[in-house]
Amino acid sequence: MAGTGGSGTSVSFALDILPYFANQEANCVQCHSGGGPAGVDLDSYANILAGGNGFPLVVPYDSSDPSAALIPQLNSNHHNGPDDAGFVVLLAQWIDEGALEN
């Protein structure tokens, strides 16, 4: 069953990832849409994979890639946002599963 994450299940972009950025407590798209800071838009799958200003946000199949900026920003409590630790686990799983548009 998609959308639940965890062992043996896939993380769904549509059910788990995008809603967190768009309308849950993080509300990242308030600042990061329509050419947001550093050219980082988190409002669609295409924009997340496009990265921002010459750097990737995610590297499919490798959540620990040091060139990708999204997980480090969330881990640093970007702009005193919510505690993203639980979401980062789901995000890392989604990336390691190939960062699919599912």
H and E string: HHHH
For the secondary structure, the number of strands is 0
Model regions low in confidence, pLDDT < 50 over at least 5 residues: none
The geometry reads as globular
Rounded mean pLDDT score: 87
- Helix amount: 25-40%
Number of helices: 4
Structural class: mainly alpha
Rg of Cα set: 12 Å
SS strand fraction = under 5%
**Major β-sheet, in short?**
none
Oligomer: single chain
Distance between the termini: 12 Å
Keywords:
102 residues; mainly alpha; 4 helices; 34% helix
Give structural notes:
The chain is 34% helix and 0% strand. The chain has helices spanning 13-23, 45-50, 70-75, 85-96. The radius of gyration is 12 Å and the shape is globular. The model has no long low-confidence stretch (mean pLDDT 87).
Chain-wise SSE layout:
Elements: H1 13-23, H2 45-50, H3 70-75, H4 85-96
Helix pairs in contact: 1-4
In short:
The chain has 102 residues and is mostly helical. Helix content is 34%, strand content 0%. The protein contains four helices and no strands.
